[in-house]
């Protein structure tokens, strides 16, 4: 009894020592094992079109993770229990004595086998969800057996994750995350872009506005049990700051029809690629931008890096004949010609030493509208040579050549516009009809905008504006209106852009075919075709540009690109409720209201 009392006294003293003198230390040790600081993901802001329709939204998902050591040990234990051999059933004499023990052991074995089957089924379910080969996940767990953290699956549905959690396996836990969903899929893939699996923007607007969209993650101190499951939240250390929404200037209706028509034409012509840009000339807002081939940001498993490129923004090429209206505008601004002047293109070519600029035939003396309608290289060269190099360079620079558009995309190219001090006679002539310099489709589309806005160039933007930005007067209103009327001849019967006509609307535009410069020479079998136009010509609103890369069937902008322009422009004007200006009862009124500028009609 004395010895027992001494032991009890020692235990009581030890308990008192731990409770009074080591309580804080013990609590700290317990907290280290049970208290965790977890990161709380922030809700990523939406990306919407100009009308508030969603183009990128986040939905809650679960990511399952585990401690591979605990999971593999549990799997091995269950397999061992399930494989235990119980032996033969006991004899009738012994059965009564061991019946209860036998049934208990058999029940434990069956439970273990059932749990093992559930575990294996859960692993197979995850393999199916991630499209893994059978047994691949078990192999990866074995390879990660020396680690204490391993993702079983990322961005799983809440139901799938819960079905795995219900197995109640040690070391398996869930993390709440958000998965990005893109309603327009491949239709707007290049514009909106995408996020990586961790939710960070890596392409398009998702990348350009990642900081604004992402918000700020929070931190919370929580208590977890021995299996890693959340018991309770103790305190919020840092509040979650949800991401902000971003509203684009895109109209998803126009975006859809632009992509649909472009994809159809690229397929029909068996072309390498194509791009479309729709621009509101009065605000600089981009209403649609589509590229083919595209990619579906919702399907990460089939994504290929070469498809991510937003060709309308990042790719630069020689504009070809689409620059000719700008050449005429530059000459009008330099006052070296007037709208009524005629250009002598005889004998149908110009020689610069070994270099020759030629037309399909000798057009003789032609007016400026005819120059554009026939797309005369000789005529454009003669107009360019009337200017000095500095005036030509200054005008092209004012309308955006040689500088980044700054529309809000990452990876925008500045194109190429060399210093005029290095230009020779050949350079000046070739720049006049679109060779020797380069620009993206967005740049050349933007350069056409002043024709539709009385000579004012508004900053291009992919974001919706609450109020218009300040524009720059890059040409006089008279020049803008004169060249616009000249471009109408291109779309009339006999012009190169006849297929760009839109019923009920007057169209002004220009076709272009630019041969590619490859391995030190221009290739006759590799070219870009394009058409850029403005409508309605009497009161312009939209600029639409179409570019088809290496069509295998039609070899000109008038045949390859103009039909896409006509369909996109027609539907866009209808969706925006822009009234027709080419109906019988409006033609006369329009003509009477137009200012006279000599013979340029």
TrEMBL record:
Residues 274-569 form the Penicillin-binding protein transpeptidase domain. Residues 40-233 form the Penicillin-binding protein dimerisation domain. InterPro entries: Beta-lactam/transpept, Beta-lactam/transpept-like, FtsI_transpept, PBP_dimer, PBP_dimer_sf, PCN-bd_Tpept. Keywords: Carboxypeptidase, Cell cycle, Cell division, Cell inner membrane, Cell membrane, Cell shape, Cell wall biogenesis/degradation, Hydrolase, Membrane, Peptidoglycan synthesis, Protease, Septation, Transmembrane, Transmembrane helix. SUPFAM superfamilies: beta-lactamase/transpeptidase-like, Penicillin binding protein dimerisation domain. Its main location: membrane. The active site is at 321 (acyl-ester intermediate). Pathway: Cell wall biogenesis; peptidoglycan biosynthesis. Its EC number is 3.4.16.4. Residues 585-595 have a biased composition (Polar residues). Residues 579-601 are annotated as: Disordered. It catalyses: Preferential cleavage: (Ac)2-L-Lys-D-Ala-|-D-Ala. Also transpeptidation of peptidyl-alanyl moieties that are N-acyl substituents of D-alanine. It is an enzyme of class 3 (hydrolase). It comes from the Bacteria. It is found in: Membrane. It holds the Pfam family PBP_dimer. Catalyzes cross-linking of the peptidoglycan cell wall at the division septum. Belongs to the transpeptidase family. FtsI subfamily. This is Peptidoglycan D,D-transpeptidase FtsI. The gene is ftsI.
